[in-house]
Amino acid sequence: MNNGRRNSAGAAMIAAAFLLMAPAAVAQWLNYPTAGVPKNADGTPNLNAPAPRTADGHPDFSGLWEPLKNKPCPPEGCEDIQTPWEFANIGWSLKDGLPLQPWAAEMKKNRAARMRMDDPATNCLPVGVVATHTQPLFKKWIQVPGLLAILNERYASYRQIFTDGRPLLEDPQPTWNGYSTGKWEGDTLVVQSNGFRDDGWLDRGGTPSTSAMKLTERMRRPNYGRMEIEITVDDAKAYTKPWTITFVQTIALNTELLDYYCAENEKDRKHLTDK
Question: pLDDT band for position 71 (50/70/90)?
């Protein structure tokens, strides 16, 4: 091939690349309108409209969700934040604090002193069910008969909650997200989970969990725009008694999931030190 033809071919390839790139941003559907959104008289989304229901009459949790950003102030005061307070300190709203076993309290203190170097999030590893509820990233819930699937933007990962009547495993192999089954109590989906790892972090502050943890989530969708998840942590190895808090999620409209991998081009971990 002579230089003239090579240059022409190169120009054609560049032009083709630009043509392919042009619709790429659109292909992510970041501004595509969400279907079926109830509207007010002025055309704005009616987030207080009744929650949609499935064919069997149960509330339908399907949709794109993110943590509520504006919550009551913690004792240390308010500031403009983009994550719920539980992201850093999951027990901040408990009157008497977390009922930590002495060793667990010491572990939490040591994890903080080490600048969270061992945090799964710091190491680009899964953060587990509880911490995922506080992550400032989208989660897509897909509800079908017998299954509630949660697609997490973080690491393009997933969680399965089986609603087909199967029992929890009696001696499960520990995993990051454990194993979950759910059943309906009226309009509340009650989810039981077990089979977690022994080195869990429930928040960025180092609050621990162990393989003994049994997690109960009571999920409600009181209206179109809001979901409430009451969680009870029962972990006798790490806590002196079970404790309960509530997360609030809000619907995210006219947008979509984007892959997020913190390990991609990651350059920070090698610089971390607790000295």
Answer: low
- With tokens 């399907």, the residue in question is 62
Candidates 64, 62, 69, 70; CA nearest to 30 is 64
Of residues 48 and 270, the one with the higher pLDDT is: 48
CB contact at 8 A, 226 and 22: no
Domain residue spans of the chain: 63-271
Sorted by sequence, the CB contacts under 8 Å of residue 243 that are 6+ apart come out as 91, 94, 98, 99, 232, 233
Contact 176, 209 (CB under 8 A): no
In angstroms, rounded to a whole number, what is the distance separating the alpha carbons of residues 211 and 126? 16
pLDDT at 61: 98
247 Cα distance to chain centroid = 11
